[in-house]
Specification:
The protein is mainly β and about 170 residues long. The chain is built from two helices and eight strands. It is about 10% helix and about 30% strand.
Length: about 170
């Protein structure tokens, strides 16, 4: 008997685009919200002309709404960041459209390049920063729509030190 799970055999289904179903007009599952973000990301004509860069604060634009969700477009000039936060009762999908962003959590920091996605549940604390020398653009899908963004102290986004552990 083989003890490998289907996921171990097939890999991450989100990395195999041909296995994803065509997004419905109004997504209802995590996979469908990921598909919606990917379809918007792939069609630059939907968002590229809207992007603005603001040196004084992060720029954002609500791109779309649907039953129970919102899609936001954000731009980040070098050095801009969100500060440590969560998204209240909202879950979400973060997709980097252009450039590179760094996501910091208590588990470490990860560079997210164009095409990278992060899926998160309510209460997920992270900080997103443009540590690069070039501007970046990201797409955010929130469900239900974003009604709050509680801020946290920096310690929530610092990797916890565990004796003998190596952090990424």
């Amino acid at each position: 008997m083989n003890s490998d799970s289907d996921l171990q055999i097939a890999g991450d289904i989100l990395e195999v685009p041909h296995l994803l179903q065509t997004p419905r007009e109004h997504p209802a599952t995590v996979a469908e919200f990921v598909g919606l973000a990917r379809s918007i990301a792939a069609d630059r004509s939907q968002w590229e002309h809207l992007v603005r860069y603001d040196a004084t604060s992060r720029w954002y634009h609500r791109l779309r709404t649907g039953p129970g969700y919102e899609v936001w477009l954000l731009s980040w000039v070098p050095g801009q960041g969100s500060g440590p936060h969560d998204h209240g009762r909202s879950s979400g999908v973060l997709t980097v459209l252009d450039g590179t962003l760094t996501e910091r959590t208590e588990r470490g920091a990860h560079a997210l390049r164009a095409g990278a996605q992060r899926v998160f549940a309510p209460g997920y604390v992270h900080e997103v920063v443009n540590d690069a020398l070039e501007p970046a653009v990201s797409l955010h899908v929130y469900y239900p729509g974003l009604t709050e963004m509680p801020m946290h102290t920096a310690q929530h986004c610092e990797a916890r030190s565990v004796p003998g552990a190596v952090t990424a």
